[in-house]
Write a structure and sequence with these properties.
Structural class: alpha+beta
CATH topology of the largest domain: ADP-ribosylation fold
Shape: elongated
CATH class of the largest domain: Alpha Beta
Order of helices and strands: HHHEHHEHEEEEH
Distance between the termini: 74 Å
Number of domains: 2
Helix content: 40-55%
Number of strands: 6
Number of helices: 7
Strand order of the largest sheet: 4-5-2-1-3-6
Length: 191
């Protein structure tokens, strides 16, 4: 008998106070069924834990990225409907969505370097309903004192995450079109 089955057998005997000798076949069936179910739950739990860890931002930020965050700040993509709330309460982690559990209490951002803007926007727009983002939140350079973590993604994309709320005094909210006009046209004009 497998160890998992022994545990289940013990639990069945204790809970139901069943005479083992009289009902051996039925009890054996119950034990095997419960052991299989217990195994299934363990597998589901492990897969969920692995997926959560895989999405969790755990990489330390390298010195070069820290320097660039201090220089350019961060950006976060969102929807126009969130503008008033962001201006009033700040940039808050999204707990309402399915990803809320996996994303944790983090605000997910990108480096605010205008040279990376289009690549980051394109990356965000490949993510389900996020393909309709139309607003960018700029987190001003040098304003974040909390430690930041980094999550490296495919194709060289790096998410930079901030735990908790980013205060409204440290942010500027604008449409993507306004951002392009203000920051990307400056870049091409000075080049």
């Amino acid at each position: 008998m497998k160890p998992r089955q022994k545990v289940v057998e013990y639990v069945v005997r204790m809970l139901f106070n069943i005479n083992w000798e009289e009902n051996q076949m039925e009890i054996q069936y119950i034990i095997q069924t419960l052991a299989c179910f217990l195994g299934f739950l363990i597998v589901v739990y492990m897969v969920n834990a692995i997926m959560s860890v895989r999405h969790y931002p755990g990489d330390e930020m390298d010195a070069e990225t820290k320097k660039r965050v201090d220089e350019f700040g961060l950006i976060h993509f969102t929807f126009h409907k969130n503008i008033e709330s962001i201006r009033k309460y700040g940039l808050m982690p999204d707990d309402d969505k399915k990803m809320g559990k996996k994303e944790g209490n983090f605000v997910w951002c990108f480096l605010g370097d205008p040279a990376c803007f289009e690549q980051n926007l394109l990356h965000v727009r490949t993510k389900g309903d996020r393909k309709y983002v139309d607003t960018v939140v700029i987190i001003k350079a040098g304003t974040l004192v909390d430690p930041l973590l980094m999550k490296k993604k495919e194709k060289g994309i790096k998410y930079i995450v901030h735990r908790g709320v980013i205060h409204p005094a440290f942010i500027e909210v604008m449409s993507i079109a306004e951002y392009r006009q203000r920051y990307l046209s400056e870049k091409t004009a000075t080049a």
